[in-house]
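Hello,

Our lab assistant flagged a job as stuck in the queue for most of the afternoon. It eventually completed. Since we weren't sure the result was trustworthy after the delay, we are filing this so someone can double-check. Below is the sequence as submitted and the structure that was eventually returned. Let us know if re-running is recommended.
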Amino acid sequence: MVEKLLQSGIHWEKTAFRRNEFLKISGTIDTNIYFIESGSVRIFMMDENEERIIRFGYTGNIIVSLDSFLSGKPSDLYIQAIKKTTVKVASKKDFYAFIQSNEEHMKFWMSVLEDLVLQQLEREKDLLINAPGERFERVLKRSPKLFQEVPNKYIANYLRMSPETLSRLKKS
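-- returned structure --
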């Protein structure tokens, strides 16, 4: 269905970001939808001068600053390229015109939203689990590609553990 979205007639603007460049910064409104053609990004917020990574995106993923996308209000989230990343960007207006154009498109959007809710619930469960090993196993099972795409220091942050603990878990 992602292919259908890209071929849909929605105006997609191709944009390249250098490593560490921001697609979005905290305090801004971003109602764009991004398709990652190549590369990877991290979505995070700041908590008392500490980064808290909440999500990753890599080749083939669609990402948005979901709170801002849905509400049209500023978001605390940052979206940053982890490495050289090429994205196709579409506006919410164009995207909504597409999904409202027929029932199949609307069903696709509903399945995307349902999937996001389920992913968010899995993420919340991960954060409630005290044992770092169990958090690691859950994420490894859910997203094995993550470990090829994203540096360990970011995965450790996402899993709320030190890079050393992650390294130990990967070895065992």
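-- support follow-up --
The delay was a queue issue, not a problem with the job. The result is valid. The first strand starts at residue 13 and ends at 17. The two ends are 38 Å apart (CA to CA).
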